[in-house]
Amino acid sequence: MANSALLVMDIQRSVVELADDGSGYLPRLRRAIDAARAAGIPVVYVVMCLRPDDLEVSPRNKLVSAVARTGIFTEGTPAVEIPPEVAPQPGDVVVTKRRGSAFSGSDLDLVLRARDIDGLVLAGIATSGVVLSTVCQATDLDLRLTVLADGCLDLDPEVHRFLVEKLFPRQADVLSVADWAAAVAP
């Protein structure tokens, strides 16, 4: 896992409230975060924030326009805060994005290159949103990828299952949080 980082994506109050399925998601995610820190793997939080005036929201972007109308990603509101159970600690990086992928409208690529990171471990909500978009873009950037299957959630469990069982294995290693944590344990 040398030169890898754990990306914790879109784990924000509004998103967790919408998607949490009662399966113990935040404690499971916390296990992945703790395992990364113990192994010396950088933890990078990626949050979605849109300006209150919707300056960066194009009416041509159907998804972002719809999300902007809900207000769940409005910058400066409690809705975009990271839940305290999995909050960043000193030394963690927080990157703000303006679109679906962790790379779109953010300085994530710069952060990764500055640290010579060439592999990503992905966790986040939603599997069909930020995780899928980031897998596609990271693949095109020639990054090694691991997706934590139970470190991701989606509003549609069937879509989640399809992605982690059928699509992501073509581009990434797909592991459970427990298996990944065991593999990186010092």
UniProtKB/TrEMBL annotation:
Keywords: Hydrolase. Gene3D superfamilies: Isochorismatase-like. It holds the Pfam family Isochorismatase. SUPFAM superfamilies: Isochorismatase-like hydrolases. Residues 4-179 form the Isochorismatase-like domain. GO terms for molecular function: hydrolase activity. It comes from the Bacteria. The keyword Metal-binding does not apply. The keyword NAD does not apply. PANTHER family: ISOCHORISMATASE HYDROLASE, PEROXYUREIDOACRYLATE/UREIDOACRYLATE AMIDOHYDROLASE-RELATED. This is Hydrolase.
